[in-house]
Amino acid sequence: xxxxxxxxxxxxxxxxxxxxxxxxxxxxxxxxxxxxxxxxxxxxxxxxxxxxxxxxxxxxxxxxxxxxxxxxxxxxxxxxxxxxxxxxxxxxxxxxxxxxxxxxxxxxxxxxxxxxxxxxxxxxxxxxxxxxxxxxxxxxxxxxxxxxxxxxxxxxxxxxxxxxxxxxxxxxxxxxxxxxxxxxxxxxxxxxxxxxxxxxxxxxxxxxxxxxxxxxxxxxxxxxxxxxxxxxxxxxxxxxxxxxxxxxxxxxxxxxxxxxxxxxxxxxxxxxxxxxxxxxxxxxxxxxxxxxxxxxxxxxxxxxxxxxxxxxxxxxxxxxxxxxxxxxxxxxxxxxxxxxxxxxxxxxxxxxxxxxxxxxxxxxxxxxxxxxxxxxxxxxxxxxxxxxxxxxxxxxxxxxxxxxxxxxxxxxxxxxxxxxxxxxxxxxxxxxxxxxxxxxxxxxxxxxxxxxxxxxxxxxxxxxxxxxxxxxxxxxxxxxxxxxxxxxxxxxxxxxxxxxxxxxxxxxxxxx
Length: 512
Hints:
With 512 residues, the chain is α/β, with parallel strands linked by helices. Helices cover 50% and strands 20% of the residues. The strands form 4 sheets. The protein has a 6-stranded mixed beta sheet with strand order 13-12-9-16-14-15, with helices on both faces. The longest helix has 26 residues, at 3-28.
């Protein structure tokens, strides 16, 4: 076996480690898929680092054999396990060396891509897998060893750039795939070692934490990785795992089984594994907590509730740290967990709803952090509170300013009656518009403009700011027309309109 060739393969692994160390934080900042928790760079780095550090063998073949045998067991995270599976398949073929280096390298890449896809039940394109697969295509097209390595890198780089368009989450965040970027470090290292030329790849793609994909909370709380010695076979284990979570990677041989899964059912998972073997290693990470620590480094955090995507994005744009959709129906225990997981020790809660206010009031009793509730009872009050939130001011100043601000607005909703109503002495016919203040119907009208006109006269306001939040079911042209017409009768009134999206089925308003 050619020692020089094996030395270069080993040097490529160590150079890959150097590159992953250099790019760790950058790769973490690309990490939005499958969960935006910012750990892909760290996972790929630790996968290779722990493997190489645990391999002490001066014999080249034995060194590579030890790396091949141990790397999957040392792997961390989705991309780390896929990367390790590639390297295991790659090295297994390298160790079956023949006299043709170009041929064996191509076969090693082919074996690596086959091993990478084999461990996944539903391989997702637009990820590290795409970069691996395309690099193999480049390897096959090269005519000699160096051209194969060059084309492999070029094809891999082109595939990495395309990942941005292949997955909606990557496109939204305007980033390439994090795992794919990490794998390119391996392709670069091969090129540099075999050609003795260096590549300086720019960190040209920057990520923005202001897009909603970064703030999408993981569906499953726990990322579990475990290794178990098998006592018996369970040929249905993958189907059983699917019932417990997603992002499942299963690697097994006759003796051991390694599992990666995102799940909320840790106890059920352990019960399943204990039935077929003895757990030797297990690592459970709280992905929600990890995401919060990755994204939120603020002195004061604001947690609030919304209705639908548009309102959620509005709240984020106004400075909220965490926005929870009311339809998630989180329990008191769920809310406590979110508060505890926040890295900030100073937390302001905006319920925007009476029922949620009750849950928040109980959370305030937690003694571990400084927690205050600003008693917002509607979406407009939540907006007003956030408009008066200032990160430059102290916690107590913000509580005072936000609390005072919501006292200065009147809010309610405008809707169309779906039946004849008689409330106190107030008669409303089916199809009539009506408006509320503090959950009490106070005016009606036969169209939207007339109803708002009557509302303003009833509460005796002819100046200030009127905010109208309407949904997709409301004719936007009609709302625009109302804005123009109101200006004629109320010249000192500022009218702002906002499309709250499909979840808003009535017009929400506030006046101040």
